[in-house]
Amino acid sequence: MYPQSLIFRTHPSSRYSVAALIGSLEADQRLADIQIEAPIEIAIDVIEESIKNGPTIIAHSVMSTQWRRVYREVQQARKRFGNDVVIIGGGAHATIRPKELLKNGFDYVVIGEGERIFPELVWSLMNGYDPLNIEGVVGKDSDHFPLPKELPIVNLDDYPPFALGMNIVGPVEVTRGCPFQCKFCCTPVLTGCKVRHRSVESITKWLKLAVEKSGFTRTWFLSPNALSYGGIGRKPEPEKLERLLRETSKVEGLEEIYFGSFPSEVRPEFVTKPILDLLRGYVANATLQIGLQSSSDKVLKLANRHHTVEQGIEAVRIALDTGFTPHVDMIFGLPGETIDDLHKNVELCYTLVEMGAKTHGHVFMPLPGSAYENMPPSKLDAESRRLLGELSRKKDLTGSWSTQEKLAQDLSNMDKLDE
Ligand code: SF4
């Protein structure tokens, strides 16, 4: 008996990718009869119920910051349900460390973009075929572990942005891939340097359906660099951006579009008055997320950011002039940052707040797949922690900077841990 049901363990940190991946199952006619559940809590009782009707597929989307929790849950499920469950994994961490997932109890791992491979894998398991024949799926018997760049890239228009059937919705990912190769980021390795956009036609089609079926009145667009929509990612394409905003604004019933605010971001050198005036004319967000990252040109250069501190501050000024509240992303403890640089980073946060901006703080984490993967994790000194804590209390600083310090340590120790 082959599995006919799937439990996709959903977690707040992976909910957007779960929405898109379940959407890709809903779009595959061959999978019309599969039973899908997407519990947000630990799913032991849900699994118990499901395996009464036969073996069950359990799917996890694994992010590097979540590995400890996921491995613990997988090991618990395996211990309790043995081979009544087929455990599959995908996502950022799975793509970079597939062998580690297999060692920790997963049966199969999807490498790279899931929309194409995930439905194939599920169909294959439901019909008793060998999943290892699918390009991009690996298991314990695999002898080749492909890199994401060796696999075909996904055309976003071929898949839904979310799962309307199950009403699991999230943002519309309008752009994937990034030509910049910031050393602290794993996006270029995971999704490639070639920028791809979901077409305006596809976006409006799905938004119309979302209004009709799920009562959407608002939506938000997801992009590694919102102002790059429509182009190759190196400079803004205002006409293409305007067409996206103009056409989607016409969707009847849709009252608000959010773009350029968290979790999307804009690169500072893309910010000009005309393009922000354009954006302001369409979007509902009061905030604009600007990736400045450091107060040191030396640190930015080392990290391969390709913009300066002054460009970041200028972007903040323009955002304020055009009616946005800038939310400025800063990373503390990037490689090459001295204690003096760190203090200047914190000082800059205060300056930005005085200008009228808010700050969004991160502590540098050596993310698997990033060029800085093997760099030491950041540690804040007591004075910086105190000053940042003060900003947080006044609500001028958001972000998980305080828990990221521990996560960063955890990531840099994970090779040494034998869980
Ligand atoms: S941080 Fe942003 S601009 Fe830099 S590589 Fe990642 S997605 Fe691209």
CATH topology call of the largest domain: Rossmann fold
Q: How many runs of DSSP E, i.e. beta strands?
A: 15
Strand content: 15-25%
Q: What is the subunit arrangement here? A: single chain
Mean pLDDT: 95
Structural class determined from secondary elements = alpha/beta
User: What composes the largest sheet?
Assistant: 6 strands, mixed
Q: How many helices?
A: 15
| Corresponding CATH superfamily of the largest domain | Cobalamin-binding domain
Order of strands across the widest beta sheet? 2-1-3-4-5-6
Q: What are the low-pLDDT stretches, counting only 5+ consecutive residues below 50?
A: none
CATH architecture of the largest domain: 3-Layer(aba) Sandwich
Q: What count of structural domains?
A: 3
> Ends: how far apart?
32 Å
Question: How would you describe this structure in keywords?
Answer:
Transcription Regulator spoIIAA; four-stranded parallel β-sheet; six-stranded mixed β-sheet; 419 residues; Rossmann fold; alpha/beta; globular; 3 domains; binds iron/sulfur cluster
Can you describe what's shown?
By secondary structure, the chain is of the alpha/beta class. The chain has 15 helices and 15 strands. A 6-stranded mixed β-sheet has the order 2-1-3-4-5-6, with helices on both faces. Strands 12-13-14-15 form a 4-stranded parallel β-sheet. Strand 13, helix 13 and strand 14 (358-363) form a beta-alpha-beta unit. The protein is globular and about 65 Å long. The mean pLDDT is 95.
Describe the structure in brief.
It is built from 15 helices and 15 strands.
